Predict the structure.
Amino acid sequence: MKRFVDLADFSRDEVLALLALARSLQAHPQPQALAGKILGLLFFNPSLRTLASFQAAMARLGGSSFVITPGESSWRLETRVGAVMDGAAAEHVREGIPVLASYCDALGIRAFAAGKDLNDDLSETAFNAMADLVAKPLINLESAVNHPCQALADWKTLDDFAVPQNGKFVLSWAYHPRALPLAVPAAVLHMAAMRGMQVVVLRPEGYALPRAIMDKAARAAALAGGTVHETSERAAALSGAHIVYAKEWGATARYGDAEADACLRSTLTDWCVRDSWFATTRVDCRLMHCLPVRRNTAIADEVLDGARSIVQHEAHNRLVVQMAVLHQMLQGV
C-alpha cells in the first residue's frame, strides 16, 4: 500500500483485511515492526487525536516521527500555484514538501478545506497538488472533503460493538456556532455505505450534502447491499436507528458565505443531540462523534456522559487502525 488517501481507493475486502490487521496488532503488538522507519507529519491545521495517535502508533511499532506545523514550528508555507510570494510565507510547498519527504519513509498531510469555493474543495485541488509532490508513501490526515483515518476507526468501532452490517446508521447534522468542513461527514457517510448499512443523512434545510458526496456514497452502498438517503424529518430518521453519528458542517446552500451561513444556522440551536432524540431509536442505539465536540451545543452532557456514548472508544480506535495502516505501508519496505 503506497497511499492511504481515500477509503474508496480500496475494495471492501481490502478494508476488511486492514481491519483484521488492526485487531491482530491490538491483541499481539509488534514493537519492532517499523524499527528504523520515520514518519513525517505536516499539519497545516490544528489537531489533537490525529497528531497524537499517529505519533503513538509509530512509536508502538518501533519507529519514530517528526511534526511540522507551518508558521509555528517552521517557515510559513505558500500553497497557491503561481503565487507572488511577497507576503508572510517564506517557502512554497513545491520546495518544502519534497524536502520533507526526503527525510522520512512516509509522509502525512493535513490541509483543511479553504471553505470558499465548493467545487474547488470537492475537487481536492489543494491536497492533490501537494500529493503530486510526494514520491514516498502518503497518508491523508484530513483534506477538504475526506478523512479516511477517521472513517476506518469508525468502521472498527461499529464492528467492536457488533452493530449489524445492514443496521440503520443516522448521520445527523448538529449545531455549531460557525461553519465546519465537509471532510468527516463525507468520509463517514461513505464508510457506512461501504459497510452495507441503511444510511440516513439527517439535516436541516440548507445543509444537504453536495450531490457528488451523496452519489459517491450511493455507489458504495449499491455494491455492499446498503442504502443512502437524506431527510430533514428528525422523527422518521431516528426511528429504529442503531447508530446516531452527530457531526457539524457548513451550509452547502450558502457555501463560502459566512454571514449567510450564520443567519441560517441562528435558528437551529435545537439541533443539539439530547436524550429525547433516542425515544424511538433502538434501545441499544449508540452515539458517535469524531471529536472535538462542543458540549451542550452539538451534544448535551446527558448524552456524552451517558451509556450510549462510545466517543472515547471511537477515539482510541484511531491509534489502533493507524497502526495497521503504517504496518501495511512500511513493514518490510
About this structure: The domain at 162-309 is CATH 3.40.50.1370 (Rossmann fold). The chain is about 40% helix and 15% strand. The longest helix spans residues 311-330. The CA atoms of residues 5 and 168 lie 27 Å apart.
